[in-house]
Design a protein that fits this description.
binds 3-methyl-2-oxobutanoic acid, eight-stranded parallel β-barrel, globular, alpha/beta, 17 helices, binds zinc ion
Length: about 525
């Protein structure tokens, strides 16, 4: 008989704490719906007290999602907990997740609280959360570096006050698997009322051990894992959902553990997170990296052709990587496109399909075969766009070995057409200078990357930019078979997202995240 491990996804909260990975509300909703399809049990939708934008995203997700518990994070203050409840209360299954640090170093230097005060705060916060909902999780921040007996004491107090889940985070990614597994075992043996709660773990990847630590904890009896897609998160990230799930799936005979995750949606979900956050996935990343199933060595290729299981411990199809992609082209109709996108994990509204079909036809004029990767870019562009202020109408560039690169650009700004020219060191510099002369925004280009979406000289180029203005950083993406056009689109997309972020930050009431144990 297999036991179930609860998958608690925190891509939208801890994942969003990755530098530069901020998402807007529409993107978060889209991702939440995808995570629901994936089979996530608990979704941490955000930290409502952190900003108005977070509050709005959590409350929107809470009212749209049906099949997952929706958790909102809160420090152990009444204000945070009340705000978390206001945001999640419309969820079918709302949850409040409150946390306070329990390690000596955090209590002395950050919180300036005694052990007794931390216990009192814990009890008070859990009781407050419990007055709103039965589903209350308590986290002992920096738990892995806390005194073991004190940790058990805090967990006992939290459970006594009503916590249904107690979470043991390795906040700074310091633990090693044998030690972390032993800590979970210790908590199980020394917390008298532990049978009344689920033990959860939340591991960071500073030493590259987040998934290994999570697995060790599960083998020692933890039954909830806090994870993120692609392992994104604060600093080096969190334990990766796809790695943990595939580990339990691939070794199920030995581990006798299971999850509710539909593994065939892992790859499309990873792509969606990559698209939304602009955080590239390293090619050799386990499960979802571009090389995860690519065999380079001749001996390996020969073996795989004779029997894939010689060198493959999982089938690519199991994680949703379809090797024999059905290729679409200019004769493919709307129906074929819809059903193909559905197989890829995208259920589109009629309006979205209409827009994507138009773009798809446009791309077919430039590129003979349209691959899944091309479609993914179209889908993310259409589904995740913000209300655009700036739109590219026209672009002409002249450059070469003997001329100074020059670009003419026509933009629609709030529907009004404007035209400008720019010169630069190269064609992209010229295009960016032309665009900059038309918009009244001074930004710094922090990052510019270009990559080919697929193989072949007619492949679409995908450009990602990171723009900064007054401390606000926005990501922009653009794709086109012409990389200069892709670069212009990425810059314009970045400008639109910057405007969106500026507006939402203006609306937000800012909270001091250092106060009372901020994260
Ligand atoms: O890493 C951490 O300790 C956290 C807590 C808020 C659970 O993210
Ligand atoms: Zn964390």
């Amino acid at each position: 008989m297999k036991e179930n491990v609860i998958i608690f996804d925190t891509t939208l909260r801890d994942g969003e704490q990755s530098p530069g990975a901020s998402m807007n509300t529409n993107e978060k909703i889209r991702l939440a719906l995808q995570l629901e399809k994936l089979g996530v049990d608990v979704l941490e939708a955000g930290f409502p007290a952190a900003s108005e934008g977070d509050f709005e995203a959590v409350s929107n997700i809470a009212s749209k999602v049906q099949n997952m518990e929706i958790a909102a994070l809160a420090r152990t203050t009444h204000e945070d907990i009340d705000r978390a409840w206001m945001a999640v209360k419309h969820a079918a299954r709302p949850k409040i997740h409150t946390f306070i640090a329990t390690s000596e170093i955090h209590m002395v230097h950050k919180l300036k609280m005694s052990r007794q005060q931390v216990i009192e705060k814990t009890i008070d916060a859990v009781k407050r959360a419990k007055s709103y909902t039965d589903r209350v999780e308590f986290s002992a921040e920096d738990g892995s570096r806390s005194d073991r007996d004190f940790l058990c004491q805090v967990f006992e107090a939290a459970i006594e006050a009503g916590a249904t889940t107690v979470n043991l985070p390795d906040t700074v990614g310091y633990a090693v698997p044998s030690e972390f597994g032993a800590l979970v075992q210790y908590v199980r043996e020394h917390t008298p009322n532990i049978h009344k709660a689920t033990i959860s773990v939340h591991c960071h990847n500073d030493l590259g051990l987040a998934t290994a630590n999570t697995l060790a904890a599960i083998m020692a009896g933890a039954r909830q894992a806090e994870v993120t897609i692609n392992g994104i998160g604060e600093r080096a990230g969190n334990s990766s959902l796809e790695e943990l799930v595939m580990c339990l799936h691939t070794r199920q005979k030995d581990l006798a553990l299971t999850t509710n995750i539909d593994t065939t949606l892992l790859f499309p979900t990873s792509r969606l997170v990559r698209g939304v956050t602009g955080m590239m996935v390293q090619p050799n990343k386990a499960i979802v990296g571009a090389n995860a199933f690519a065999h380079e060595a001749g001996i390996h290729q020969d073996g795989v052709l004779k029997n894939p299981m010689t060198y493959e411990i999982m089938k690519p199809e199991t994680v949703g990587l379809n090797r024999n992609q059905m290729i679409l082209g200019k004769h493919s109709g709307r129906h074929a496109l819809r059903s193909h996108l559905k197989d890829m994990g995208y259920d589109l509204s009629d309006a979205e399909l209409h827009l994507i079909f138009k773009k798809f036809k446009g791309l077919c004029d430039k590129k003979k075969y349209i691959l899944d990767e091309d479609l993914e870019v179209l889908v993310t562009e259409i589904m995740l766009r913000t209300a655009d202020i700036f739109e590219l109408e026209y672009l002409h560039v002249s450059c070469g070995t003997t001329v100074m690169p020059m670009a003419s650009v026509k933009l629609l700004i709030n529907g009004r057409s404007v035209k400008g020219t720019g010169y630069g060191n190269g064609p992209i510099d010229a295009v960016y200078n032309a665009i900059a002369s038309l918009v009244d925004i001074t930004t710094e280009l922090l990052r510019f990357t270009v990559s080919a979406i697929s193989g072949g000289t007619d492949a679409q180029g995908e450009v990602t930019v990171r723009l900064e203005q007054d401390g606000i950083v926005a990501l922009g993406r653009g794709a086109d078979p012409d990389i200069i056009t892709a670069s212009a689109r990425a810059y314009i997309n970045g400008l639109n997202r910057l405007e969106y972020l500026k507006n939402s930050q203006n609306e937000s009431h800012s909270t001091d995240m250092d106060e009372s144990g901020g994260i």
